[in-house]
Amino acid sequence: MRGTRTATGAALAAGALAVIGLALAPTAAAVAPQTATITASCGFFGGGAATLTATQNGTSATITLTSTAISAPVAVAPDSISSTLTLARAGGGGVVFSGTKNPAMNTGDPVSVGPLPGTVAAGDRLDAYGGSLKMVIFGITVTCKANGPQAPGPFVFD
Question: Which residues contact residue 137 at a Cβ distance below 8 angstroms, ignoring those fewer than 6 apart?
Fold first, then answer.
């Protein structure tokens, strides 16, 4: 009987410690806003509205860009576009998000790239305006630039 009480007490103590640990654990860092829109120009390949979606986990962040106004110049396989998105940092410089993540797209389909990983610092304020997106598709380089600041405002990282 005494062994059962000890085991029950130990289990309750472990459970209580787990609950306290969860309550005191730091919350994941967040970026605000999580989505922003821009109007971009990609030269011969089109232009128009695009949506940027940001996530953050500590100093690691990702950005995904989607646009129904900018179309794929050729059919592409998944994860075959080499993308480099540079966001301008308030106060100077920029932060680069790069990778080869994309869904399969047919010629003329809306463009979508990401999530593209990058490294951010607490307090970074990043905007597509003043930066660029370069996509290399079968040796063809497509460069897009924002025509103005993103709305509702820059991404602010915790």
Answer: 72, 73, 74, 76, 80, 81
Specify the pTM: 0.80
Convert the pLDDT of each residue in 16-64 to its tens digit: 333 333 333 344 459 999 999 999 999 888 899 999 999 999 999 999 9
Q: How many residues does the chain have?
A: 158
Domain layout of the chain by residue ranges: 31-152
CATH 1.10.287 fits 31-152, yes or no: no
In angstroms, rounded to a whole number, what is the distance separating the alpha carbons of residues 112 and 130? 20
Amino acid found at 143: T
Tokens of 150: 């993103």
DSSP 98: E
Q: How far apart are CA 69 and CA 47, in angstroms?
A: 6
Q: What angle do CA 66, 69, 37 make, to 5 degrees?
A: 50
Alpha-carbon gap, residue 145 to 133, rounded angstroms:
7
